[in-house]
């Protein structure tokens, strides 16, 4: 196995574990009654921007798998299909943010910081939305019966999942914007 193929595999395992640990040990910071900032998706986004869609998807999958095998997902697992969707498919879809890697790399090489942040924002929005779209669908199908009496399962799932989507996406954007000065070094996989 070559050195170039081992390094991304090590980072996939490491970043997935960091996401899992952040999920376990950090408490979301509330900003208003509906949104709580949470930084747990940041390692998967970083992985996706460094190595692309495949590595990001694998990192998300491992993060979801860690939640299942450690029992953290126990309260959120209703059926085999629902659990598969919400812990394997949804978490893997965070990796789709890596589709911006080629244009992001080019913008970073050219020193175009604003353009880099635009691509990062697009990647984070795409990855976060893809994950929460699956959670929304599962919310309608599997969790809809928990909606308050008279409330549509669609509205219920939207309310429950949109607050998480907004909080985690906003937190991820804040981190990458704060690190903009270091993006060239942070996302460089050549060294």
From TrEMBL:
Pfam families: Thia_YuaJ. Gene3D superfamilies: 1.10.1760.20. InterPro entries: Thia_Transptr_ThiT. Keywords: Membrane, Transmembrane, Transmembrane helix. The chain crosses the membrane at residues 37-64, 84-104, 116-143, 155-179. This is Energy-coupled thiamine transporter ThiT. It comes from Streptococcus raffinosi. The gene is thiT.
């Amino acid at each position: 196995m070559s050195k170039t193929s081992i390094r991304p595999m090590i980072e996939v395992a490491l970043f997935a574990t960091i996401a899992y640990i952040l999920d376990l040990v950090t408490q979301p910071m509330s900003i208003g009654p509906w949104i709580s900032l949470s930084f747990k998706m940041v390692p998967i986004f970083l992985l996706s921007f460094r190595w692309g869609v495949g590595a990001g998807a694998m990192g998300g999958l491992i993060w979801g798998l860690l939640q299942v095998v450690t029992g953290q997902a126990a309260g959120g697992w209703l059926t085999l299909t629902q659990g598969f969707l919400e812990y394997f498919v949804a978490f893997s879809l965070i990796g789709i943010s890596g589709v911006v890697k080629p244009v992001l790399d080019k913008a970073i090489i050219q020193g175009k910081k604003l353009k880099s942040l635009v691509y990062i924002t697009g990647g984070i929005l795409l990855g976060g939305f893809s994950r929460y779209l699956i959670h929304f669908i599962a919310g309608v199908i599997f969790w809809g019966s928990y909606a308050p009496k008279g409330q549509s399962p669609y509205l219920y799932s939207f309310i429950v999942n949109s607050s998480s989507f907004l909080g985690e996406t906003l937190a991820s954007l804040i981190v990458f914007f704060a690190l903009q000065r270091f993006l060239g070094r942070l996302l460089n996989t050549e060294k």
